[in-house]
Design brief:
This protein is α/β, with parallel strands linked by helices. Helices cover 45% and strands 14% of the residues. Helix 11 packs across helix 15 and helix 14 (296-311) crosses helix 15 (314-327). It is an enzyme of class 6 (ligase).
């Protein structure tokens, strides 16, 4: 299907820069520029799709990387479609998996979906967001329609997918229903007539299937835009609840702010690019100021306040900063401290102090707690039986011993 050509004006180039900010890949950039130009010329907004399977009830900052991009494109006047994959969740996304993923029950999906859109609306403009569920067109397909859909994609193409190839060569079972996941996700793009689909870098194969299926159905193929996966507070693994390195968007302001202050000065810039609504010119100016000697801690405070204000309020951000500074008034938190990973959460405070190398023995740990010399995220600890759940904490013993401890489940 050919499209009327429209000029690539400076406004179109500016829109393209917004789309590309922080992205990992935009395919095909020249096609998307033409779509933007046509939209500018005709006043017809593009249809931009993001699908999320409600595999867990809560959204963390890692999920908001693509939501932020949706909001930026929404602010340019385009139609954003927040697609809840209630049908595809029952298949289970095999992306990046080394084994068959157990599908969710309809009850689990319904329960998780209840909170998904409410949380996403903290980033997206709910008045300008089209919310859809893919069971709307997947359920009516039936067995006949599913077979017809499957006839439009080859097994050879499916086996180009890296995780499928790896599992096949390793003799690890691949269930037939797992081939249906990228097909059904691709069919979503057909049903919604998407111009652009967003996803994480791990979704690239699925997004490309949608592009190919649209060609099969006589539609102009969507472009795809992948966003990088955001490292968690440990600065190593992608943000994940199972890793305990996440920052939930419904967490209390003090917890959210404290976790943001715990990230490294290097990782802070990636958080700025992917999470902040500041312009790239502003961020470059902040980088220059730090390079010229400004304290990176102050720059991190700006980021923490922006994120807390977005998900709570400006007053909550102000109060979180005030309480954070009050907790640490008795001693300066060093910018550089040992990064410790400990498994087996929840863990007792005595064991945490010992395994983090902050004390030599359990008795020394008990003595420091009794003498009120132990702090977790700035708060004094007086309970020797305290259990710490999975998460990242700044642990302090006395005036000078610090460690940033990440407890994994």
């Amino acid at each position: 299907m050919s499209s009327p050509e429209a000029p690539i004006t400076p406004e179109v180039e500016a829109d393209l820069r917004v789309a590309k900010r922080g992205c990992d890949e935009l395919l095909v950039e020249s096609e998307f520029a033409r779509k933007l130009a046509r939209s500018r010329a005709t006043g017809q907004p593009l249809r931009i799709k993001l699908g999320l399977d409600p595999t867990a009830p809560d959204i963390h900052l890692g999920h908001t990387v693509v939501l932020n991009k949706m909001r930026q494109l929404q602010d340019l006047g385009h139609t954003v479609i927040f697609l809840i994959g209630d049908f595809t969740s029952m298949i289970g996304d095999p992306s990046g998996r080394n084994a068959t993923r157990p599908p969710l029950t309809a009850e689990q999906i319904q329960e998780n979906a209840k909170t998904y859109y409410a949380q996403a609306s903290l980033v997206l403009d709910p008045d300008k967001t089209e919310i859809r569920y893919n069971s709307e067109w997947c359920d009516p397909l039936g067995a006949r329609g599913l077979i017809q859909l499957a006839s439009r994609y080859t097994v050879a193409r499916m086996m180009e997918r890296e995780d499928f190839t790896r599992r096949f060569k390793g003799g690890i079972p691949i269930s037939v229903h797992e081939f249906l996941y990228p097909l059904m996700q691709g069919y979503d793009s057909v049903a919604l007539k998407a111009d652009l689909e967003l996803g994480g870098t791990d979704q690239k194969f699925n997004l490309l299937v949608g592009r190919e299926l649209q060609k099969e159905y006589g539609q102009e193929p969507q472009c795809i835009l992948t966003m990088p996966l955001l490292e968690g507070t440990d600065g190593v693994d992608k943000m994940s609840k199972s890793k305990g390195n996440y920052i939930g968007i419904t967490e209390a302001p003090d917890s959210m702010f404290g976790k943001l202050m715990s990230i490294s000065d290097t990782l802070m810039w990636k958080y700025y690019e992917l999470l902040s609504f500041r312009s790239m010119d502003e961020i470059e100016l902040l980088k220059k100021q730090v390079a010229d000697g400004a304290n990176p801690r102050d720059t991190k405070v700006l980021l923490g306040q922006e994120i807390v204000a977005r998900f709570h309020s400006q007053q909550a951000a102000h109060d979180a900063l005030a309480r954070f500074e009050a907790r640490f008034r008795d001693g300066v938190i060093p910018d550089d401290m040992p990064e410790i990973q400990i498994g087996g959460a929840p863990l007792g405070i005595l064991k945490v102090l010992r395994e983090a190398g902050l004390v030599a023995s359990a008795s020394e740990a008990q003595r420091n707690i009794e003498q009120r010399g132990v702090r977790i995220d700035g708060d004094r600890i007086d309970d020797k039986g305290l259990q710490l759940v999975a998460g990242t904490y700044v642990v302090q013993v006395g005036k000078r011993k610090f460690a940033r401890v990440t407890l994994n489940g």
